[in-house]
Amino acid sequence: MLRKLQQFLYFLIFILFIRTQQITTQECKGEEPSEFQTRFVSVICKKGDKSLPDRTGAVLKKNFILTAFDGPTEGIRCQIVKDDDNVPTGKYTRDIDEIFTFEDDFESDNWRVPQMQILKPKESGKSSNSPLNPMKLRTKYFLPKGQMCEVHTYDDGGKLIEIDVTVQSQEDCDDYYKGLNPINICIKLPDGCPCNKPQPGAGLECDDLLVGVINDDTKCVENGKPRLAADVNEVRRWIDRLIIQDNILTIKYLDAERDDGMYQCGASNQLKTTY
């Protein structure tokens, strides 16, 4: 009798496991290949020897990728990956050199702070035709309730897809997320589409503009909550400041290289004159 009970429990656990897998891999209504294939990348990360869940990154510049983490990023190593037929491996890859976090108050509930990180890849050291193109950001402050938008995310097969979603009001999410930060946008996925379908960092796009970054909360499927996205327009100053600082550093680096080249050229000419 006890053995039969154990077998039944094992079978029940197996069925639950299969159903969970189906929930996370099932196609959503209206799901189709993303029309912005060059504007998003896959982000692969590890912390120590532990692999973290894959996430999506939106391209701000060729050396700035916007994504989301729920927690400190110290000790996390990441790499961006993109299909590219122009390289022998078929993959465009870059290791991440730095991770910048908008707000690092990870002690509170993850909906009380916007999840927003910028990844800066290491320089390749050689010129190449990058398969990446920047995504334009929204500049308007008003996002009407009920607006139809798309979420761009990678599926379990590594394909970049887009899913139709609906923007909801803050009031619609108050019952689910007490003290919801106003920087977070509340979105509703199609009926039957689990809220953990979009990867962390997936891009919320409305009218061809990047509006938000999907937060790192794949457990939302356990409690039937709507998904949240950090509003990029609310953090434009932070994004612009990082980009401006990077541009200044790049200009200084190029100026230093040019000055060094001019000095070497002058020294070479002087030697020729002497001889």
UniProtKB/TrEMBL annotation:
Pfam families given in the database record: Trypsin
InterPro entries: Peptidase_S1_PA, Peptidase_S1_PA_chymotrypsin, Trypsin_dom
Family annotation (Gene3D superfamilies): Trypsin-like serine proteases
Domain Peptidase S1: 56-239
UniProt keyword Secreted, yes or no: no
N-terminal signal peptide: 1-20
Alphabetical keyword list: Signal
Domain of life the protein comes from: Eukaryota
Keyword Repressor: no
One GO process term, biological-process aspect: proteolysis
Single Gene Ontology MF annotation: serine-type endopeptidase activity
Name the UniProt record assigns to this protein: Peptidase S1 domain-containing protein
Taxonomic path: Eukaryota, Metazoa, Ecdysozoa, Arthropoda, Hexapoda
